[in-house]
Amino acid sequence: MNILVTGAAGFIGSHLVDALLARGHRIVGIDNLSLGTRENLKGALADPSFTLIERDIASEGFPDSFDAGCQIDRVWHMAANSDIPAGIDDPRIDFKDTFLTTFRVLAWMRKHGVQRLAFASTSAVYGVRDKPIEEDSGPMLPISNYGAMKLASEGCISAAAEAWLGRADIFRFPNVIGSRATHGALFDFVRRLRRNPLQLEVLGDGTQQKPYLHVGNLVEAMLFIADHAKDKLNYFNVGPEDDVSVRAMAEEVVAQTAPGAKIVYGADNRGWVGDVPKFRYSTAKLRKLGWGAQMSSADAVRLAVREIAAENP
User: Fold this and answer.
1) In the chain, what's the furthest Cα-to-Cα distance?
2) Strands 244-245 and 209-210
């Protein structure tokens, strides 16, 4: 197939590109390179089946001006603002990079008759819950602009599926970790300890507890859903069956990168405005389809710390 991947040079998008190329597809990647890098696509750029186009898909003229150079069979829409605190500080960031990217991509797909979409959503659409979250549990009340704009994007995709879109797969991610990361707690911990190997400052009191999924497992899950789900509009929680605390993560980073460093915690159970301190969501729907995470949250953290530390010597 000819596949368009938005956010192709980013953390998750670049891993997805590698997996799709390994399946023999021809890939057109598009990225504005604000967070993504060409280095993430070093292997893909050497493959004649891959083309990278530097472009801002949130721009008003995108639907009418973008030419993929071939007839696209499917779009994987990974592009978004992934820095949640930045979106809290300036809501325009998520409106543009998280919502408008989706709106423009849907307009482009309709114009060119592309009928299949896969969309990277998030557990942040649910907001704060005190029980394991199932896909159809409500109401959805996100507490970050990132979650709000992802939820608005899901709404646009649902409306498109009713009006003209042939099929859409929506993946609600947990915290995703691993190589090529550009943000997140593990990434920040490693970078802070590189600057000061004697002390690690942690945002929040360390009791925050969430599921963490390695990016390799995430890509496997997305491809499995795309291959096996049958509905016109599919939406799945993607993640492991367990969770891990920020305290355990901080201790793992210290153990691997700066043994003996002192860990200093904050006073609140939230790291920043918009941070959901604890959540667990149900992955029963995905397990019923036939997929389960191969790594626990703790195992994913252990592997990701090694990868991120190797990339940030």
Assistant:
1) 59
2) antiparallel
